[in-house]
Amino acid sequence: EDAERGASADREVVEARRRQLDEWCAWRAAIEEELLEERAFLGLPEDPLAVLLATKTPEVPDDAEEQIIE
Amino acid sequence: MRPVLLAGHERALTQIRYNLDGDLIFSTAKDQHICAWYAHNGERLGTYHGHVGAIWTVDVDPTSTMIASGSADNTMRLWDVKTGKNLKTWEFPTAVKRVEFNEDGTKLLGVTEKRMGYLSNIVVVDINPDVNAEQSDEKILTIVCDESKATVAGWSYLSKFIIAGHEDGSVSQYDAKNGDLLYNVSVHELNTPVTDLQWSNDRTYFITASKDKTAKLITAKDLEVLKTYVSDTPLNSAAITPKKDFVILGGGQAAMDVTTTSARQGKFEARFYHKIFEDEIGRVRGHFGPLNTVAADPTGKGYASGGEDGYVRVHMFDKGYFDFMYEVERDRQNRL
């Protein structure tokens, strides 16, 4: 009986985690999409950091500190 | 995890920041020096001299060109990472407790202390990303925190909101364009200060640490508390790890608040919690005093902690860290 109770408690914990994980993933998907839409609406690139870093690399390939971003 | 010990500071650490590439670490301490280090071997890249008081805060711009700092000498300063040159100094009536660049490095905010009849302010200046350019004196925005002083603040995604944490345990959302207060929510226990605020990589959510012994994961858009991490010690700092869904908390009872100061009783450990399930999953020992600051490498390879003991400890995650998964996470991954 104890083992039975233990097993159902475990199941509850696992089910609760599954719910938490699903909720988290759903929220992330929604906010990521919203962010992309807002960026598109403002005419901004999808990934702001990738663009900044790309601008810096070609100018001074092995001297990261001296780039100029207009 | 094998830590690298950075022993360049003579006094308590106040803040640590990684650059975006995760290869450089910037640290500030009460000893008036800002240090830059190589993350992979702990070698010192340089120091930035000029402040004449304890330094409370540092941040690095997204291209690792410039850093900003705030100090008890009532100035906020901008520095050239490479040459160490002090590019600009902004003066205030009180200490600058927090600085942060926005996501594209074109704006910088500073949080000033409440003292001597001055209220705590959040000020914003424009930054010219060209290191050779003249920087502007003008404060384009000043937010006066008259309800409760701001202890920390930062920029949300799209530089849309300025989010601040306060001494009374609440968090505020301001319109970053005009400084209007949009929301103020009590997230931590009343009158337990918010001690840290750090962002997720995309700045859509953040984590706060508080003296009430909890850390909270909160959305930038509507200040909804998503998660609460409960610890057994007052917290000074909290960071979100990229790649893995963990958060790192740091704190500990200050020596003057405990009768015995053994590392165990003082609880001077970095604590790892699962970001989604809120469980504590591990601790890392090593410091001889409270952890004042923790920072996660934005590329997910490791983390660093800075202590009241004057040391920075840099940890590289090992395979076990990356392999660790809850059963439900593995299930989900297999289903996708």
TrEMBL record, chain B:
The lineage of its organism: Eukaryota, Fungi, Dikarya, Ascomycota, Pezizomycotina. Keywords: Cytoplasm, Initiation factor, Protein biosynthesis, Repeat, WD repeat. WD repeats lie at residues 6-47, 48-89. It comes from Sodiomyces alkalinus (strain CBS 110278 / VKM F-3762 / F11). It is found in: Cytoplasm. This is Eukaryotic translation initiation factor 3 subunit I. The gene is TIF34. PANTHER family: EUKARYOTIC TRANSLATION INITIATION FACTOR 3 SUBUNIT I (PTHR19877). Its main location: cytoplasm. One of its GO terms (cellular component) is eukaryotic 43S preinitiation complex. Belongs to the eIF-3 subunit I family. Belongs to the WD repeat STRAP family. HAMAP family: eIF3i (MF_03008). One of its GO terms (biological process) is formation of cytoplasmic translation initiation complex. The keyword Protein biosynthesis applies. InterPro entries: eIF3i, WD40/YVTN_repeat-like_dom_sf, WD40_repeat_CS, WD40_repeat_dom_sf, WD40_rpt. Component of the eukaryotic translation initiation factor 3 (eIF-3) complex, which is involved in protein synthesis of a specialized repertoire of mRNAs and, together with other initiation factors, stimulates binding of mRNA and methionyl-tRNAi to the 40S ribosome. The eIF-3 complex specifically targets and initiates translation of a subset of mRNAs involved in cell proliferation. Component of the eukaryotic translation initiation factor 3 (eIF-3) complex.
